[in-house]
Amino acid sequence: MVMVPAGQPIPRTRVRVGRTLGRRDGWQAVARGCVTLQEGDAATPVRNAWEEWHLRDAQDVDHRLAYHYGTGAVMLSRPEQVPETLDPRTLREGEEVVVTLDGRPQRLRVDRAAVAEVFHVVGEPTPPLRVGDPVAHAELHGPDVVLTVQDAGRGVEVHRGTVLDKWAQKAVLGRDVGPRMNRFLVAAGWAAVFVLLFNLLNACMPDDLRVGAAGAVRAVVVPAAAGQVPTG
Question: Model pTM?
Answer without folding.
Answer: 0.73
